[in-house]
Design brief:
The protein is built from 13 helices and 13 strands. It is α+β, with helices and mostly antiparallel strands. The protein has 3 domains: about 90 residues, no CATH class; about 150 residues, no CATH class; about 160 residues, no CATH class. Strands 3, 4, 8, 9 and 10 form a 5-stranded mixed sheet that branches. A 3-stranded antiparallel sheet has the order 6-5-7, with no helix packed on it. A 3-stranded antiparallel sheet has the order 12-11-13. The N terminus and C terminus are likely disordered.
Length: about 425
């Protein structure tokens, strides 16, 4: 076996020109075997490395003459000193990126779009057949098994059926979890209702060894506990697009997570807000913990608005109302509308603020007489708000109902549902 530590770079370079390896900013033609050996040598010396290696373009030398660690010398030789100005640690990280199971399942026809979205923001992802075998896709939709014990009855794929595809994220653990959890949070925001099956949303690191991976797929992923974490949502590509667009802006990332956690803390099912059902959800609770939970949900929702810098900006010197009839101060209103317009939100759109059942002791400001077109004025008393009015109503609830010590009024709301739907 050739000792690559003593072979000049030009000889290694010429032994296998048809192997192409993606390395940082450029493509380098490398010998696959030699690269693996170099990385192994490098990792063997990893614990002895100085805090920072300022590589000095040292040419390749025999072991006895080299003043640098073997792994570093070989790697520099293999790379033809192209990356001699980078730390070896950075190069090793590029070569040894772990893979994480996201538990996010996609329909096979969605994978090309999702791959394109992820690559546009620099995420390294790939798809593999769903190891849980929880979903089957066919022309008329998909089938799902709810528990691993039913997989045998679920059977193998029939004619025209395909397995789902699992999204695998290739990144360091923290970044992989940030990507996976952001997509899951965007899922909740898109649906407007939490998925209680999610539980732990962290990724699961996959081993490189094929036999170990196959064992995990069968003995762990297809057993109670992790099996339930595999999920499919038809609108998930939209959630991926939302996550991708938010990724460069930390404040938007936080806004998505806050609104998602708001729904997870307290929410009504979207279909229960349909006018034909009237009031089918509870409005009040005598339990103190419910009062606190409602408060947390409202605070999180409004904090998401603040993360996007879309709150009403007013002060004692520049009040938002000109009178007690809630006439907007033109200066304050124009400032809010301009910020909405700047981020691509139409400031003239309207929202239906859901108000159901008997009147309560909690007023909603601003007071408007414009009911939604479907309101009956009795049980269904939904109000049509302009977008600035709706944002003010959110800030009113936060400022006067939840942000400070609770008063007597809080005993009557507990399960207050502050739900808006766009029109």
């Amino acid at each position: 076996m050739t000792d690559v530590r003593r072979v000049p770079a030009w000889q290694l370079w010429g032994r296998n020109r048809n192997f192409r390896f993606r390395f940082g900013r450029a493509d380098s033609c490398l010998s696959a075997t030699s690269l693996i050996v170099a990385i192994r040598l490098l990792l063997r010396e990893w614990s002895l490395r100085p805090a920072h290696w300022n590589l000095d373009h040292t040419p390749f030398l025999p072991v006895s003459q080299s003043s640098v660690p073997y792994g570093r010398a070989v790697l520099l030789s293999l790379l033809n000193n192209h990356y001699a100005d980078q730390r070896v640690g950075e190069i090793a990280e590029l070569a040894c990126v772990p893979s994480f199971c996201s538990f996010l399942i996609f329909e096979p026809s969605q994978t090309t779009l999702v791959m394109s979205l992820c690559r546009s923001v620099g995420w390294t992802v790939r798809f593999i057949p769903d190891p849980s075998r929880r979903y089957k896709f066919h022309k008329s939709g998909y089938s799902e098994v709810s528990r691993p014990g039913a997989l045998a009855e679920f059977g193998s794929l029939g004619e025209g059926e395909t397995q789902g595809r699992l999204l695998v994220v290739e990144a360091e653990e923290i970044e992989a979890n940030n990507i996976i959890q952001l997509i899951r949070a965007a899922d909740v925001v898109i649906e407007g209702f939490p998925d209680q099956e999610y539980g732990n949303t962290a990724g699961f690191e996959l081993p490189d060894d094929a036999s170990e991976q196959a064992s995990i797929f069968k003995n762990i992923f297809q057993t109670t506990g992790l099996f339930e974490r595999f999920s499919f949502k038809r609108e998930r590509p939209v959630a991926v697009a939302m996550a991708v667009n938010a990724w460069p802006d930390r404040r938007i990332v936080y806004a998505i997570h806050k609104l998602s956690r708001c729904y997870e803390t307290e929410a009504i099912t979207p279909w229960s807000a349909h006018p034909r059902f009237g009031q089918i959800f509870e409005k009040h609770s005598d339990e103190f913990s419910d009062h606190v939970r409602s408060s947390i949900a409202i605070n999180l929702a409004f904090s998401a608005i603040e993360e996007m810098n879309l709150q009403v900006k007013s002060s004692r010197e520049k009040p938002r109302w000109l009178d007690n009839k809630y006439t907007w101060n033109p200066t304050v209103l124009m400032d809010l509308k301009s910020r909405l317009d700047r981020v691509g939100i139409n400031p003239e759109r309207t929202f239906d603020w859901i108000v159901r059942g008997d009147e309560t002791e909690i007023p909603i400001e601003p007071v408007r007489d414009q009911f939604s077109v479907y309101s009956d004025g009795k049980i269904v008393r939904d109000v049509q708000f302009s977008l600035p009015d709706a944002i003010h109503a959110c800030s009113y609830l936060r400022n006067f109902m939840t942000a400070h010590a609770f008063g007597k009024v809080h005993s009557v709301w507990g399960l207050t549902k502050c739900t808006m739907s766009s029109e």
